[in-house]
Amino acid sequence: GDVIEALTKHAKHVPYRNHKLTQLLSDSLGGNAKTLMFVNCSPVESNADETGAALGYAARAKLIMNKVEKNQDSQEVARLKKVIQIMNQELEQARQGGTSSVGMAQA
């Protein structure tokens, strides 16, 4: 409850470590992600307390509003994407029976 409350009130500190579930969901609850939550409800009377608690948690989690921003690729990610592109070109050339001059200098 305290993590959800801190997120809905835009508190400076959010105590994710207080609970295992919120620690696991920290990226989804307060991060830069669109999150879909499923709540398991049981029709059995003996599970009414747990179902009520789960529905209450989901109702509070629904009040969280994240500021979504596009993630920018770091230089390392851009470099790795270029490496993958070169390797795909070399693979395509190898499949066609040609030789590649790009990877030969590194071998």
Radius of gyration: 24 Å
Low-confidence residue ranges: none
Helix content: 40-55%
Helix and strand element order: HHHHH
What number is the mean pLDDT?
81
**In one word, what is the shape?**
elongated
Largest sheet: none
- The computed structural class is mainly alpha
Count of separate DSSP helical elements? 5
* Strand element count: 0
- Which percent band covers the strand fraction? under 5%
How far apart, in Å, are the first and last alpha carbons?
Answer: 57 Å
Structure characterization notes:
This protein is mostly helical and 107 residues long. 49% of the residues lie in helices and 0% in strands. The protein contains 5 helices and no strands.
Brief overview:
By secondary structure, this protein is an all-alpha fold. It has 5 helices and no strands.
Main attributes of the structure:
about 110 residues; mainly alpha; about 50% helix; about 0% strand
What is the topological layout?
Blueprint lengths: L1 H7 L11 H5 L1 H5 L17 H14 L13 H21 L12
